[in-house]
Amino acid sequence: MFVFSLKMTKEDECSVTSGRRIVLVNLNKEYIESGMFFNWYHYAQDHLASSQLVIDASSDAVRMLLPIKELPDEIFVVDVNGGMNTLGLLRKGGVSFSKAPFGSRGFRDLMKHRVEQISFLLKQGCTVLQVDVDTVWKQNVFHDIDAAGRHALILTDDDASKNRWPHKWYLCGCFLHMSPSLAQGSFLEDWQKETSRQNGNEQIALNNVLRKSYAHNPIDFAVLPLDHYMPGPITSAHAHVIHANWIVGIKRKVAFLKKKNVWHESTDQWLRSRR
């Protein structure tokens, strides 16, 4: 594990979840229709007991989630305006959906949407783990996060070559464990501005901001061991998380997870039940 550390400020308790750590996932219809999210949740659910799952999704995607009985009512859904509701309330029809689905002008006007949602949560004093759902958690990721120690940011390397950090800046935006202390400096604002400059690519923007700050005002971050957190092409039997990245297209991602024997039977059963 690589670590670059400065003294962190004291964290505030999350006002949104009564102090529980947030696991934030971003969904669109394709990731639900393909079974990708269902498969991710199947493997992750046992490790989420002490955390609050928050789903950031369009109204159309949320409607697809409501009938999934495996998803408990307590899951939070956040809309494009930062408002939060539980799946339970949405199932009862007590609240309305956002009117700006993914791909709409409302979302195109928010090219840095994901960064803004993260910023909103951090400013509420929340610790946030933002993760991609084209992944499978084979182990409890929080054990690795806690073993890394207290840092403002804990993330993974996304370079599949041997020229990795700190020799090359290609850290992954797919797995970001963020302390609310990140909201106290200019990091979030810098990341938002750089994301806009990079046409909405949060990962390139993240690396640019971290690299630029490294020499003069470094952000306190740690990189989890590559042996357990590998990009898709170099995944090994030692992986704690299997990630179908560096793979283009949802069908190819599903095929990759099936090849790794981590596409669960219950996912296929759920897909068949929807036909």
Topology diagram in text:
Elements: E1 2-4, E2 21-27, H1 29-33, H2 36-44, E3 51-57, H3 59-65, E4 76-78, E5 84-86, H4 87-92, H5 105-108, H6 113-122, E6 128-131, E7 135-137, H7 141-147, E8 153-157, E9 171-178, H8 187-197, H9 202-214, E10 221-223, E11 241-243, H10 250-259, H11 265-273
Parallel strand pairs: 2-3, 2-6, 3-4, 8-10
Antiparallel strand pairs: 1-10, 4-5, 6-9, 7-11, 8-9
Walkthrough of the structure:
The chain is of the alpha/beta class and 275 residues long. The protein has one domain (2-8, 17-270): Spore Coat Polysaccharide Biosynthesis Protein SpsA, Chain A. The protein has 11 helices and 11 strands. The protein has helices at 29-33, 36-44, 59-65, 87-92, 105-108, 113-122, 141-147, 187-197, 202-214, 250-259, 265-273, and strands at 2-4, 21-27, 51-57, 76-78, 84-86, 128-131, 135-137, 153-157, 171-178, 221-223, 241-243. The strands form 2 sheets. Strands 1-10-8-9-6-2-3-4-5 form a 9-stranded mixed sheet. A two-stranded antiparallel sheet has the order 7-11. Helix 8 packs across helix 9. It is globular. It starts with a strand and ends with a helix. Residues 1-11 and 99-111 have low confidence and may be disordered.
